[in-house]
Write a structure and sequence with these properties.
single chain, alpha+beta, 4 domains, 5-stranded antiparallel β-sheet, 3-stranded antiparallel β-sheet, 26 helices, extended, disordered N terminus, disordered C terminus
Length: about 650
């Protein structure tokens, strides 16, 4: 591999330096005149060595620079010749720097290892950039770009521009062009060139772009006895105004040597006590130091004698401040550059704000899709049966644990997910039917007893889950194709799992709309929802519809559990985290209406994300504010966003 890499470097360097007048020299011949500079290299002397190496056009130069940077170049003390070495214990195997062939051995006492310091290695790294930017290996080109991004230097502009001309990879080319614009904006030869580069960066949202432009609009605060000329002034400051108090102005005068340090009254009094001699502070008796004016006068007398530092009075401070002018001055001296940078940053900030709003909307829609999946089953059972099922969250938990158990037996995460979704529906459907047949059917039209019974079932199911799976969180691993996120730019991104949950929620919305509007079961469900007695007189069995509806709602909760478990930890309390939001979604949207549930989930999801955006460090507070908002909302619209019409509305 080293030999192959040498040949690649040789071909590349021969291409870059074709026709060089020094190409006939060997690497040893180039280095020997710089023996002392190479042996004891410093930041001050290494430039000449590197310049001669690059000018030689030798194909071995990149490899030599890398070895020198990595402390793998040795010098023979006897004749000053340079070698690469292989350590063989007591002896060193010497390798020719041109052919890498062994040329003998030497003891360690006969050789000197070259150990360049950090400053020399930095110079070598800059020199290597021009080779690495056009290296045949794309990974080495990317590494070179990363090195420039970490430590930009004006010397890197020329090789970067040359490397752009020969780049064939579109992604790397885009990075090179952007980086060239960034370096030109900072290190361009003229103001016009820099402004042109800055204007080209105006629409880019990358962190690197903002990091390059921000230093151009940074300011320093300074005080002057007379207004300055030739400075790039950002703003003239008015002492005593908002953001620049008199104390800040005086501190600035002290820092720049225009005024003595402020001395507090306590420090003044301490100085007076220290300098009392024979009952006198200067020429003033201690008995007379009972007023602020007397203490000021005594201190001023001591200061005039050089005993204590000079202290300005309040009037003196005001006069000192009034005698000076204060400015925020750009660290960038060129006004055209700062104007262009400010305009570019303003444009970027506007786009960032728009994209942040879009990103917040995506987060809200993503959370809304989760709430919709969690609540849609509850909306069906609550809308048809008027049953407040406090165990609905535990059906979500059962679905998540079903997915976990499936993955114990099926190692392929994609296949296990495809199996887990219908199996979770079947398990929770069966559990829902059993619950309805054994408990719920005996408690119809008794909402308080139903609530207490389902709450007890909820606690029992949680305890059963703890007994079976323990209290430790269990992993439900997503397939590899759901890893990562869709990244639009440096501001907007959303995980693939959230996208998948959104698609799943949309699929269930369409499926339920089809079932309720296009199938006999849906017709019977709607009939029972509107008027159970009339539906029964038409030959529909309300008890069967209630059972099927409860099972369907429970089955959908199980599928929601699998989806939620892909990004949340699967524990026995998983369902408890979503039951409150599920009920709020149903109530806000309108009981028994799928479209209302969708709108309720959208409203609650976006509202929660909006509140979290204002208070990102406290999600509990965000949920509290959201509940308060919903309570207020219900006061004005007690039947929800989409209220039931007809006879069912009066039930």
């Amino acid at each position: 591999m080293p030999l192959l890499r040498t040949l690649v470097h040789a071909l590349f360097a021969a291409f870059m330096f074709c026709g060089s007048p020094l190409a006939a020299q060997s690497l040893q011949e180039v280095l020997l005149p710089h023996q002392a500079e190479v042996e004891k290299a410093s930041r001050r002397t290494v430039d000449a060595v590197v310049e001669d190496l690059l000018a030689s056009g030798l194909p071995q130069v990149p490899q030599f620079l890398e070895n020198w940077q990595n402390k793998n170049v040795w010098m023979r003390k006897a004749d000053g010749a340079f070698f690469y070495v292989e350590d063989r214990g007591d002896d060193l195997a010497l390798l020719d720097m041109t052919t890498l062939a062994p040329v003998g051995t030497a003891g360690k006492n006969e050789m000197t290892q070259l150990k360049p310091n950090s400053g020399v290695r930095a110079v070598i790294a800059v020199a290597l950039v021009q080779f690495q930017l056009s290296d045949p290996d794309p990974e080495r080109r990317k590494a070179a770009l990363q090195a420039i991004e970490r430590d930009p230097d004006p010397e890197q502009l020329a090789p970067l521009r040359k490397a752009i001309e020969t780049e064939t990879d579109d992604a790397i080319l885009a990075r090179k062009v952007t980086l060239e614009r960034l370096l030109t904006a900072r290190f361009g030869a003229t103001s016009e060139i820099r402004v042109e580069a800055i204007e080209a960066l105006a629409g880019r949202l990358s962190v690197e772009t903002r990091a390059a432009l921000n230093p151009m609009v940074t300011t320093t605060r300074a005080a002057f006895a007379v207004p300055p000329d030739g400075l790039n002034i950002a703003e003239e400051l008015d002492p005593g105004s908002e953001g620049f108090s008199n104390d800040q102005a005086y501190d600035l005068l002290v820092a720049e040597g225009f005024a003595p340090p402020a001395i507090s009254r306590a420090a003044r009094n301490e100085a007076l006590v220290t300098n009392i001699r024979n009952g006198m502070a200067g020429t003033i008796p201690v008995a007379q130091l009972n007023t602020e004016d007397a203490r000021d006068a005594a201190y001023a007398e001591l200061a005039a004698a050089g005993t204590v530092p000079l202290r300005l009075t309040d009037q003196g401070r005001e006069e000192a401040i009034a005698a000076h002018v204060f400015y925020d001055i750009y660290t960038e001296p060129d006004a055209a550059v700062t104007d262009a940078a400010r305009a570019a940053l303003a444009s970027i900030d506007t786009k960032v704000g728009l994209y942040q709003t879009f990103d917040l909307l995506l987060d809200g829609i993503s959370l809304a899709s989760i709430y919709f999946l969690a609540a849609i089953g509850l909306a069906i059972t609550f809308g048809v049966m008027r049953v407040i099922n406090m165990a609905h969250g535990e059906f979500i938990m059962m679905g998540a644990y079903t997915g976990y158990v499936v993955q114990l037996f099926i190692a392929d995460y994609t296949l296990s997910l495809l199996v887990a979704l219908p199996l979770a529906f079947a398990v929770t459907f069966a559990a829902g039917v059993a619950m309805e047949r054994l408990v719920i059917r005996h408690l119809y039209k008794r909402p308080l007893e139903t609530l207490l019974a389902t709450f007890g079932i909820s606690i029992a199911l949680q305890q059963i889950a703890k007994n079976i799976f323990g209290t430790q969180a269990r992993p439900l691993t997503a397939p590899g194709w759901l890893d990562g996120a869709w990244v639009m730019n440096d501001v907007v991104s959303i995980s693939y799992i959230r996208i998948a949950i959104f698609v799943l929620g949309l699929a269930f919305l369409l499926l339920l709309l089809f079932i309720l509007n296009r199938t006999r079961l849906g017709l019977e469900v709607r009939a029972v929802t509107q008027n159970p007695s009339m539906a029964a007189s038409m030959g529909i069995n309300p008890a069967r519809i209630n059972m099927m509806t409860f099972g369907l709602g429970s089955g959908i909760a199980g599928i929601a559990g699998v989806a939620i478990g892909l990004y949340a930890k699967v524990t026995s309390e998983l369902g408890s985290d979503y039951i409150v939001q599920s009920f709020m979604t149903v109530v806000v949207g309108g009981v028994g209406n799928i479209w209302g549930t969708l709108l309720g989930a959208t409203m609650i999801g976006n509202l929660q994300k909006l509140i979290e955006w204002f208070n990102p460090s406290n999600t509990l507070a965000a949920q509290t504010y959201m509940i308060l908002f919903i309570i207020l909302f219900i006061q004005f619209r007690p039947r929800g966003i989409i209220a039931l019409k007809g006879r069912a509305a009066g039930d």
